[in-house]
Every structure is written in structure tokens, then in C-alpha cells.
Amino acid sequence: MLRLGLSAEYEVDLWGRIRSEADAARLRAEAGREAYRTAAVSLSAEVVRTWYQLAEACARLRFLRDQINANEKILSLIQSRFDNGQADGADVIRQDQLLESTREQAHIAKSAIGVFNHQLAVLLGRSFDKKAGCLSSRLPDLPSLPETGVPSQLLRGLCELSRRRPGGSGTRHPAASGILLGFDLSLISLMGIIALSGVVVNDSLIMIHYANQKRAMHSAFDAIHQAGLRWFRPIVLTTLTTFGGLTPIILETSRQAAYLIPMAISLGFGIVFATSIILVIVPCLYLVVEDIAGPGG
């Protein structure tokens, strides 16, 4: 036996939610692309800044080396004059201290060159060479930008979609109408049932109260019949407006409204079901009670 099945779904975008989500996704993609370009520009600027700091440190090291050579020659000259009795010993000590200070500054400049070379290697994505010294007068070439791949937000959205699918392994949103909609019963949905009971009791009381007022001049059947005709329109309008107001919340899929959906489903679908009870079952029970009570009840 060969069986073929066809199933199709289409969600009517009455409030523009789907269109807004599509526009928001497109704008998020453009924002991510611009942020990616901004990061590339920031990386280029950091490379240029580090390269100029390295060039400055190299120029400073060359200047200090020239100064060390000059100080060594001056120290040699002062030492010769001291040997010939033409200079004081304090001059020799002062020049020797100046020479050592210059050598210390040159050592600091050399260490700074190593630090800047390491930073530049990290920014360029290259391995650090301890023997690397001063670079050429030309700025280094930047590597090509890597592929971005699949955005993490898209992956999280797919996981959320798989949890919301019927039969998925994720946690479902609880609701009072669990059998019909495939949701579970929870404390939030029970709060919706409590709110529903208030609406049902109020509609039933006003109809029974009106029937009791007409009972003095009419039979039980005529009294409840007139009460049903009198309060049919208000009860139906209350049901339609309440369910229509809760429909956007029931159809909402955002995480912010997830905790309101169970309450909205309990109150919305419950009041639709309770309307038939108020307009059909309550009048029948009213007549049954009147028959049991009898003419003298």
C-alpha cells in the first residue's frame, strides 16, 4: 500500500512581526559587517602606532650608541690629561658616570625594541623572532582578513528554534491548554485560570440575576430565555475583545514574552470555551434547579 502525505503551513503576518524580524536580522548583519571593518581599521592603526614606536626606539638607540662612542673618546682624552697632571680626578669620575648612564639608557632602548617587536609580531599574526632588530623604513604589510564563518547569534537562534519545534528535546513553554497546543501546565497558567474564573462567574451572575428579576412575572423558561437574549451580545463581545487582545501575546515568540504566553493561552482559549458554558449549560442548569425545586420552591 502506497501512502502519500502533504503538509504545509503559512503564518499570516498581521502585525508585521515577521517583516520586522527580517529587517532586524538584515540590520544586525550589516552592523556586524561594519563592526568587522572597524576592527580591521583599529588593527591597522595599532600596527602603525607600534611600528612608529619601534622606529622611535631604534632611532634613540642609534643616537645613544653615537653618544657612547663620543663619551668614550672624551673619557680617554680626560684620562690622558689626568695622567699628564692637566686634569682633576673628579673630571674623570664625572665623565665615567656619564658614560655608564648613557650605556644604561641604551640598554633600556634595546629592551623597548624587543617589546615593540613582540607586539608587532602579535598584531601581524607572526611568530616572534628574538633576534629581530630595527625594521626597514617601510611599513609592514598587513595579513588578509580571516573568514568570519557562521555568526554565533545565528547558531543560538537555530538552537532556540530546535527547542521550540514539536517533539524537540528542549524545554517547552508551559500553558494550560497543553493537550491542544502541546504545552505543559504550570503555575503561571494556573494564574490565567484564576483570572478566567472571575470573568466566568461575573458573566453567569449578571445573567442569573436578570432572570431572577423577570421570574416574578414570567415562567422559569421565559425568564432565562429573556436573560439569554438580553446578555448574549455583552457576553460575546467580552469574549471576542478579550481573546483578540490576548492573541498577539499568544503568537509572540520572543523570550521577553515567554513567561506571559501560558497565562494568555489559559485566559484566551478558556474564555472562548466558557462562553458556550455560560450561554448553554447555565440556562439548562437554571431550568433543572427550578424543576427540582418545584412550583412552591
Describe the structure.
This protein has 2 domains: 17-124; 172-293, Multidrug efflux transporter AcrB transmembrane fold. 72% of the residues lie in helices and 0% in strands. Helix 5 (187-214) runs parallel beside helix 7 and helix 6 packs antiparallel against helix 7 (261-293). It is rod-shaped, with a radius of gyration of 43 Å. By secondary structure, the chain is mainly α. The chain has helices at residues 17-83, 89-124, 152-164, 178-181, 187-214, 220-251, 261-293. The protein has 7 helices and no strands.
List the secondary-structure elements in sequence, H or E. Answer: HHHHHHH
The number of distinct β-strands equals 0
Helix content: over 70%
Largest sheet: none
Number of helices: 7
Overall average residue pLDDT:
76
Question: What is the terminal separation in angstroms?
Answer: 66 Å
Structural class: mainly alpha
The CATH fourth-level homologous superfamily of the largest domain? Multidrug efflux transporter AcrB transmembrane domain
CATH class of the largest domain: Mainly Alpha
Rg to the nearest angstrom?
43 Å
Integer tally of domains = 2
Broad shape: rod-shaped
* Unreliable residue stretches: 163-179
Beta strand %: under 5%
Stated plainly, the CATH topology of the largest domain is called Multidrug efflux transporter AcrB transmembrane fold
For the record, the CATH architecture of the largest domain stands as Up-down Bundle
